[in-house]
Amino acid sequence: MPERDRQRARVYAWEDQVIVPRDQTAVSFARAQGMVDAIWADLGLLFPPKIERLPRQARCTVADATRLSIRLPQTCPSWLLLHELAHALSSTHDGVSDGHGPVFMGLYAQMLARYLRIPIDELSESLVAAGIGVDLAAKPTFIDEDIVDARLGRRGGARAG
Questions:
Q1: How many other C-beta atoms can be found within 10 angstroms of the C-beta atom of residue 42?
Q2: Were both Cys, which of 38, 86, 92, 155 would link to 108 (CB 3.0–4.6 Å)?
């Protein structure tokens, strides 16, 4: 996690105002692993995080995530599962995380657009209005671009447009 998660409160307020009213769907704990596995595979990634139960004694935490696991309650909103999945995508196996920073927000916005069909331009506009930094070109933190380039036969970090 960054030294101080400066955007956290703004991100939560933005979600309450922009995302929650647009997504009233819920995911049961029993279906969450299948959804995470499908999204992870759709993103071309291997080894998705494991879904675990949030401890019953958790009073202030609604859900949490690392690269290796996502802890959820019995039922959660779809947007919350995507939020936690963005944390898993913006963290490394050894606990380094972007918190609610620009990489996290970029990955989260990409998934909101792709899976909840919220137009990316609307998301971008609302994030700017809320003063939230976002990297809309963000990639999962744990991907080594040089290895990906080598597997795809690209040289010198050249990216296909």
A1: 11
A2: 86
- Which residues, other chains included, contact 117 with Cβ-Cβ below 8 Å and sequence gap of 6+? none
pTM here? 0.84
Instruction: Give the tens place of pLDDT for each residue, 97-149.
Output: 888 999 999 999 999 999 999 999 999 999 999 999 999 999 998 776 554 45
Backbone angles phi, psi at 47, to 5 degrees: 60, 70
Residue spans per domain, the chain: 8-151
154 φ/ψ angles, rounded to the nearest 5 degrees: -90, 150
Indicate the helix (H) or strand (E) that contains 94.
Answer: none
Distances from the Cα of 158 to the Cαs of 44, 53, 147, 153, in angstroms? 19, 42, 12, 10
Q: Which residues contact 79 (CB under 8 A, 6 or more apart)?
A: 15, 19, 20, 23, 112, 116
Give kind and range of the element (H or E) at residue 157. Answer: none
Distance CA 101, CA 17 (A): 19
In one-letter notation, the amino acid at residue 76 is: C
Contact 98, 141 (CB under 8 A): yes
